[in-house]
Amino acid sequence: MLFSSPEFIFAFLPVTLIVYFLLSSSQKVEASRLWLLVASLFFYGWWNPANLILIGVSMIFNFTFGNLIIRHRKKWLLTVGVSANLAVLFYYKYANFFLTNFNGLFEGHYALLNVVLPLGVSFFTFTQIAYLVDSSQGKVGNYKFSHYCLFVTFFPHLIAGPIVHHTQLMPQFADQKNAFLNFPNLARGFFIFNLGLAKKIIVADTLSTIVAKGYGDTAALTTVQAWVTSLAYSTQLYFDFSGYSDMAIGLGLLFNIDFPLNFNSPYKSKNIQEFWRRWHITLSQFLRDYIYIPLGGNRKGEWGTASNLMITFILGGIWHGAGWTFIFWGFLHGAALVIHRQFTRLNLRMADWLGVVLTFLYVNVTWVFFRAPSWRSAIDLLKAMVGKGVQTSDVSLVSDYYMAPIWIAAAVLLFTKNTNELGAEFKPDYRRLATLIIVVMLNLLFLNSATNQEFLYFDF
């Protein structure tokens, strides 16, 4: 059940909201929370009911181990708990990658496993690893199991984030006043949700046709087509994932829950460090707090800092997918951060506009490895981008005249106020009501489009 699907928008969401607030208005706050938990489990089980077993066992295990860690404060308990979570992640995401590489290196003949990646497994695993680590540091309160389950499964963030921390979410669920209808939050949440929906189904899904054509045969691209392909993917990925995050934030507000910011106009960044403070912010914070800082952060000199950055971002690449292209993508970003640190130590400066252009171009090139289905495809696309592609091509990437409004809209949206800024200043006045009506009407036009597809981060 996609956030952008009619069954979610016109059935699941209104029923969940109405029952939730009816229960809370009848002073049945605990019942309203249980209803939200049941609804979230139903939402997750919609794709594959068998996945409910996995997430159920995961929550029972982590809640139990969290309590054991709090009670006994033994380091080996934390090691076992984190290792078990990583083992589950390895099995579902990396076992076949490992077998494929083992067979290739040692001429082995091990059959690949028949594994289907459960939706959201990376997100709910990282969320619970953070919970275990915080349990060992005395940062976890005395939570009920049902409250813990609601924290993990709350449907707006369950599938593709934002990666939420228990200290961000559980106190909000415990606050009694958040269980009752709040019209300003309802209006602002509906506004932000529709802006995110527009980013997804109008911009991202439309550009997906260009991306699919270009990456479908990278060896047949001209230079212009290669640049169109790469730029289309950079734009598609941003509008798709930030659109999902906007919808999650909007949905949270409908239930009076504030989610952390996940995107903050990352393509306006003047350097690569700033980019990672603006892109997928909750993942960046997780990598910083639970990998980079425990490794020593910047406390071990320049070589130690460089090593810690490289390890952190290579692991970030591995988290995104089981493939050497993802690992190399992480390596490129780690290397860029190391170079940036040296650049700033020399106290050299460049014009802000030049920093934005160079940062975007670098990120755009690295996205090629993130998206390409193989090394060969990535190299072919990059060669075409530097003028070594074919001279003519049958791939009609720039002749689709109907795409022009989408490119214009994307360019405008990238460099104007983002959804977070618009949401923060939202007031239910006539001007914003008119804007919302226009956005809703456009969303309804695009809602049943043939290009409407799953969110890109569902695969991570």
TrEMBL record:
Keyword terms, alphabetized: Acyltransferase, Cell membrane, Membrane, Transferase, Transmembrane, Transmembrane helix
Presence of keyword Membrane: yes
Subcellular location, principal: membrane
Subcellular location: Cell membrane
InterPro entries (alphabetical): Ac/AlaTfrase_AlgI/DltB, AlgI, MB_O-acyltransferase, MBOAT_fam
UniProt record similarity statement: Belongs to the membrane-bound acyltransferase family.
Protein name from the UniProt record: D-alanyl-lipoteichoic acid acyltransferase DltB, MBOAT superfamily
